[in-house]
Design brief:
The N terminus is likely disordered. The protein is of the alpha+beta class and 408 residues long. It has two domains: 286 residues, outer membrane lipoprotein receptor (LolB), chain A; 97 residues, TATA-Binding Protein (2-Layer Sandwich), CATH 3.30.310.
Length: 408
């Protein structure tokens, strides 16, 4: 891997340290890492305006990365904001109809955390967050006339939707702290660490000035593809100069314009939150739904697959797709591909109704040596699904997907 770039020339020793540091981390395929970053940011944190350029001691990219790695903030609270602009079309009534359909089918209640993800997929949202060690966290999504809260306190995980007065309850597994390491990233620190795992010789990492975020002095770490052809322009992380905690995460597209994801604290305190912050009792008259699958509550869906699949495939096999996952290319322009073993996505006329119109608004019909298919686009991730069920996905252009399919 090539050395990180910094404002100063990088020495050979620093380059060795950088290579060693990267080998210690689990490697992520770049498209998967970028998708994870996007999904995770949608799942928790926030957009914020930084201001000022504080005068801080000079620091190299490697030193700042080390500072992030050593950061161990256990107690904090604050207000966060997230602005997400993936370039998705207006869902209109589709989102609500899909959500209501899931509820009617008995999949859960409006207090189930998974039912809130679609709300965070676009637009600007404000959250309050608090943490006191690995066993106590709280995230509250502030809405117009209501509030949704997700509370983890010891063995209990509670979700509460004040608008519907519904409660969701599950039990955290005994090894929750260890399992959390494999979860989709849920904080600016997690997002930054996962972004750095994707760094190799196709990536430039530099320190570019300073900023003030939520009243805290911070360094600006910039992660940028060296390759052309990626939809990712750059990732900018504001890192707290004292604690090393990432305070803001911004992903901008190569196409320019507004950030795809702009996430960060607008207010933060590192004082110990009150114990009452994590105390929850279902309000009188609230409908309480107990989740019988603990793994589902904690982002681990494998448990629901074990023993129930009649094909004989393990949960790991199912996660890889029928014919497994292959990677074409390298770095930020790599493309993940797999075969669903079935038909491609239906056209709008075949799907019918709102869903058909939604598919048409997302997709572009394409053809080539591979046959024909549909490219589904966002400002970050594009995917080609061929009519015979092969999938090509990456943070690359439509033309790159078609080229990969033709070569495949």
């Amino acid at each position: 891997m090539a050395p990180y770039e910094s404002d100063d020339s990088t020495t050979a020793a620093e380059a060795d340290d950088l290579r060693a540091g990267r080998r210690k981390a689990a490697r992520y395929v770049v498209p998967v890492a970028v998708v994870g970053v996007a999904a995770a940011t949608i799942g928790l944190v926030p957009a914020l305006a930084d201001s000022g350029d504080p005068d801080l001691p000079k620091i190299s990219a490697q030193q700042l990365i080390d500072k992030i790695a050593k950061s161990d903030v256990q107690q904090m609270s604050g207000t966060v904001k997230i602005t997400t602009d993936l370039g998705l079309p207006d869902l209109g009534g589709l989102e609500s109809s899909l959500t209501s359909g899931a509820t009617k089918s008995g999949d859960g209640s409006s207090a189930d955390p998974t039912s809130k993800l679609t709300e965070l997929a676009t637009g600007t949202h404000t959250l309050r967050v608090a943490a006191d060690g690995p066993d106590r966290q709280k995230v509250s999504l502030l809405e117009n006339a209501a509030e949704y809260s997700l509370i983890h306190n010891g063995k209990d995980v509670w979700g509460y939707d004040s608008q519907s007065n519904e409660v969701y309850h599950s039990t955290a597994p005994d090894n929750a702290a260890e399992q959390k390491k494999d979860d989709v990233p849920a904080t600016p620190k997690d997002l930054t660490e996962d972004a750095l795992k994707a760094v190799d010789d196709t990536t430039s990492v530099t320190v570019q000035g300073t900023a003030q975020v939520a009243g805290r002095d911070a360094y600006r770490l910039v992660i940028k593809p060296k390759q052309s052809g990626s939809t990712v322009g750059q990732i900018t992380v504001a890192v707290d100069s004292k604690t090393g905690l990432p305070l803001k995460f911004t992903l901008t597209p190569a196409s320019g314009g507004a950030a795809v994801i702009d996430a960060g604290f607008t207010q933060v305190s590192f004082a110990k939150p009150s114990a009452s912050t994590f105390t929850f009792t279902p309000p009188k008259g609230a409908k309480v739904t107990e989740d019988s699958q603990t793994d589902h509550a904690n982002g681990h869906f494998e448990g629901s697959l074990k023993g129930d699949d009649k094909t004989g495939k393990s949960d790991k096999d199912l996660g890889k797709g029928p014919d497994g996952l292959n990677v074409i290319g390298k770095g930020w322009t790599s493309i993940a591909t797999f075969d669903t073993g079935g038909q491609g996505m239906p056209s709008g006329s075949e799907a019918g109704g709102q869903f058909g119109g939604f598919l048409d608004s997302l997709g572009d019909k394409v053809s080539g040596k591979f046959g024909s298919g549909t490219v589904f686009k966002t400002r970050l991730i594009n995917a080609l699904i061929t009519d015979d069920g092969k999938v090509y996905v990456g943070a690359v252009s439509k033309d790159a997907l078609v080229k990969a399919a033709n070569a495949g």
